[in-house]
Amino acid sequence: MNTDEFEDRLKTLRPRLHRYAARMTGSSVDGEDVLQDTLVKALHARAQIAEVDNLEGWLFRIAHNTSLDFLRRRSRNTVVPLTDDLEADPLPEADIVTISFQTFLRLPELQRCAVILKDVLGHSVDEIASIAECSPAAVKSALQRGRVALRRLSQAPEDARLPLMADADRRMITAYVDLFRSGDFDAIRAMLAEDVKLELVNRLEWEGRDKIAPYFTRYAEETKWRFALGAVEGRPAMLVFESGAMEKPAHFVLVDWRHGRIAAIRDFLFAPYALESVDWARLA
Questions:
Q1: What domains can be seen in the chain, in order of their start residue?
Q2: pLDDT confidence bin for 157, thresholds 50/70/90
């Protein structure tokens, strides 16, 4: 497989890898960070080896280890106790896509890995054992325990919604959204820090106030978008809807501030997979 074919395969697998990383980390946004780290590691490793026999399994092993590294750095150790009930049917896809990422995070690591890879992504027990670097018996046990625990946790009332943002964050994102709605992009540009960073996730990254000007020009020219104040996983966000389809956002934009100026914009326009089961709320 040449370099172009390898990179095309990475693009094809990107949504599946994100589904795994998002549930492993408990966050669609953090899952995207893990995914990007995974792809960087894969590209670097690919340059050092001649061939990969099972590309998808190899990539998921990298994503698995990168997810665990991320979680250990964040010291997220909330787990549920193991259950002795080892009999559990697979979770139906219609049910599993409604379970929040934070609920998956409450499972122990191997249970979480086994349920996601088997019931969300359709891997075999042997494939999961290879990715998680454990025995098939351990995978089977973790899968059964994880299914039981996930069913119980998904029915708990605390799974409904994450806390929303602080008042200061709300005021800043409200101002940003109001300016988008009115089309006053010059006012937004005046709010940008000199070293502002823009990431169009899954497409490009720019840095610097002058370099990101085309980003606002495109939004100014587009008439199909409608903008709303919102929160995504408890973070300040601008929700972007398509005209006539206001039930669920088409994508979302995260904005970070530093000393009263916009320091970073992260736009998920080209990463629609990030919306799957993400915890979002429209605030206005």
A1: 3-159 (1.20.140.160), 167-282 (3.10.450.50)
A2: low
